Amino acid sequence: MTGLPGSTARALGRIFIYLCVTLPLMPVQALLVAMRSPFASRLPKAYHALCCRLLGIHIEVRGDVSNVHPTLFVANHLSYLDIPVLAAVVETSFIAKREVASWPLFGWLAKLQRSVFVDRRASGVHNERDDVAARLDQGDSLVLFAEATSSDGTRLKPFKSALFGVAQKEVNGRSVVVQPVTIAYTHLDEMPIGRAWRPLVAWYGEMDMMSHGWHLLGLGRLTATLIFHPPVTYAMFGSRKALAAHCERVIARGLSAAIGGREYRPEPGPQVVPASP
What we know:
alpha/beta
């Protein structure tokens, strides 16, 4: 990778502060989950917002975040940073690959945030829709990374439509709301992140996570842009493939505008009526 040099002192300082915040809160969150406390959903949002500030990540939010419960947020995927960036803005859990559950530290954190672990292979995903549907039935919002893997941050990988079928169900007599979300990392120390610098943030392919993370921690102030597109429902499209294609199209447009430095407003679309308080 080429780009700005990282600071070893900054990386060490951020790791130290991150662990000082994270380790004491893990047993607290475990207790909240065991007690089924509503704070088990609220604490992760506050925790991730704090971590983003400590790690030098500034989040720009465009569009309106769905306030309907549950909402299935559908996003593109560039990096492990997507988790804290999204979770700092939305009270949600994540649909994650099954192997994430075995990762040191991050696997534990994913479990504490009540992630749903699935086998994204075509032969296995159909058997795990029920797990996702059950969480939606409980009123829990979830994030689906529809590419099923991370990309280089320049363009999307084709969306996998299998799990979009869960949006066909109704919860408490209402259709599940689906909100497309574009994630883009646009500036580093106020400088636009071009194609040459994008691998400094995006983690994909055969990149080693430890070395990539170490270099990333040493960099300066990072700007993450989240574009929340108008919410939709399954019934508006009639099939999971058409719903997936819509989400892919609007997310791609948002990504192109964000990394191109163009102002982008989510295009008008059918509006989902919020649930009554």
